[in-house]
């Protein structure tokens, strides 16, 4: 998509070795399909909405495989909105020592209106003043549900659930 506001509808599953970079404000309709990448699946530098408007029983999924996978890495103050999708960091085993399903390394906004975010390590990492609001949906993590990094971030749980085998919320900020 070359134009802000475009919607890209997945017609087939996509499996690549390199990450997809989103530089235009768009909507991705997973349409019941899966995006799989090694390492980081999506690098998001512009506003992105991910939906799944399929009428099938399959649920669209974003998987990042490897030891330090990231489902989506948000930079440049971008906004990521999930509407009823499943996003997995897809780390192959729970023995991975790093990896986030959604990772902010700069200011930005994450809104979740349903669906599931799953990670073998951490579901959501907020840094540099990033703001996350969970209105509905589930965060599942092997180690940390939500990490607020040393450079601060804001986490609002207005609905939904955070499940973790370790800590639900880890606040490293000041």
Describe what you observe in this structure.
The protein has a 17-stranded parallel beta sheet that branches. With 174 residues, the chain is mainly β. It starts with 6 loop residues before the first strand and ends with a strand. The protein is 0% helix and 59% strand.
List its traits.
globular, single chain, 17 strands
Short structural description:
With 174 residues, the protein is mostly beta strands. It contains no helices and 17 strands. It has a 17-stranded parallel β-sheet that branches.
Give the topology, please.
Blueprint: E1 7-9, E2 14-16, E3 20-22, E4 26-29, E5 34-44, E6 48-51, E7 61-74, E8 79-83, E9 85-88, E10 100-104, E11 109-119, E12 122-126, E13 130-141, E14 144-148, E15 153-157, E16 161-164, E17 167-171
Parallel strand pairs: 1-4, 2-5, 3-5, 4-6, 5-7, 6-8, 7-9, 7-10, 8-11, 9-11, 10-12, 11-13, 12-14, 13-15, 13-16, 14-17
């Amino acid at each position: 998509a070359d134009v802000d506001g475009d919607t890209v509808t997945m017609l087939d599953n996509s499996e690549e070795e390199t990450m997809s970079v989103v530089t235009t404000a768009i909507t991705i309709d997973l349409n019941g399909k899966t995006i799989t990448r090694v390492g980081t699946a999506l690098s998001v530098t512009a506003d992105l909405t991910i939906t799944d408007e399929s009428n099938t029983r399959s649920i669209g999924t974003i998987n990042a495989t490897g030891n330090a996978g990231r489902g989506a890495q948000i930079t440049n103050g971008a906004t990521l909105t999930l509407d009823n999708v499943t996003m997995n960091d897809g780390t192959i085993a729970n023995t991975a020592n790093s990896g986030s399903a959604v990772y902010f390394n700069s200011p930005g906004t994450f809104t979740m209106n349903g669906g599931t975010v799953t990670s073998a390590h951490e579901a959501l990492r907020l840094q540099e003043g990033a703001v996350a609001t969970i209105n509905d949906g589930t965060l599942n993590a092997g180690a940390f549900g939500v990490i607020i990094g040393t450079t601060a971030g804001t986490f609002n749980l207005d609905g939904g659930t955070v499940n973790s085998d370790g800590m639900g919320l880890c606040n490293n900020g000041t």
